Amino acid sequence: MTATDLHPHTRSTNEKKIGTWPGVIQAELIRVKATAVVWFPAIGLLIGALSSLFSLWSSNATDASGLLSWQAMYVTGMAAPILALLAGLAETREKKSRHGGTDIRPVSAWKIRTGRLLILVGLSGLFYAFNFGGVWLYAVIDGRLGAQRILLAGLLGWIGSIATIGLFSAIARATNLITALLLAVAYQLAGTLTAEASWWYFFPPAWPVRLLLPTMGIHSNAVALDPTDPLTSESPLVGIVLNLVLAVAMMGLSIVFNGQRVLRTPFRPQRASLSTDAESSATAMDDTTVSHLEFIRRDHVQDTREKQWARPPDGGHGGFNQEADFRIAGPRSSNTAGARYLHQECLRTVL
């Protein structure tokens, strides 16, 4: 007897949540807690701490530019692979668990994927909050000018991460985690190298990088922008619109894309359970139990025939041959007296 049997109200409440948005989100949160995905925002805290520490050691700047120059290491070199790791871990978890049985429950697969992506986008938001938020806190404590640029860069970076999560969720679902990470490295490299090209508008991998360059005040190679550089005065509005359009497209693709077919666990019939009620226990026999008893009955009949065949021709002592009683001739000679005794006891008990 389970807890839901003792509390019918709890069982009915859980059944009502199946397929609803609160139920989908709650189920995804439970799955996230049991995996390494829940610790993903801690990577942002580590990157923020390292950026602040390196800036303290190597930069003499009195404003936020020294801190942002070290964040360029993440924006131009690590953003896509780290986000692909987040998406790939979630998809790998689903493959290994065969979707946790959700593929046979009355809930849309699209809704389950949407809930998973929403949780991943939320974790990405925490990652950027810990990363850029930690650097901003250090800038405020240190009294650096332009600390608000750090918060704006974190917000723009999170907007650019949504499309990356959607894309590599679909890739990891179709392939595997290693393939997704390798493609993410190529994606990041291509976007960084083309972020300042004249045709960057037509190359989506460049959009997340280009979005952050004016706010951070750096080139795609992490060199500080010259005050007269046209990129310094570029509005982030165009980049925001492009990244949001890409986010909608990639999220939609990841939601509708099924990916690899996961084989379900073969059906195993449940064993007959004994009831505590004496009357119901005498009649509670499923098809599996009936088939087993029929097998025992046929086995007993065949044993009897073989024993009769094994009697001495002259009748002997008038009973069964002692050897034949313990080892039956023919293809069933490997049977032991113990197994036959167990069958006979089952017959006496049941029949």
TrEMBL record:
Keywords noted in UniProt: Membrane, Plasmid, Transmembrane, Transmembrane helix
Region annotation Disordered: where it falls in the sequence: 303-324
Chain segments annotated as transmembrane: 36-57, 69-90, 117-138, 150-171, 178-202, 237-258
InterPro entries: Lanti_perm_SpaE/MutE/EpiE-like
Transmembrane helix among keywords: yes
Membrane recorded as keyword: yes
Identification of the protein by name: Uncharacterized protein
Lineage: Bacteria, Bacillati, Actinomycetota, Actinomycetes, Mycobacteriales
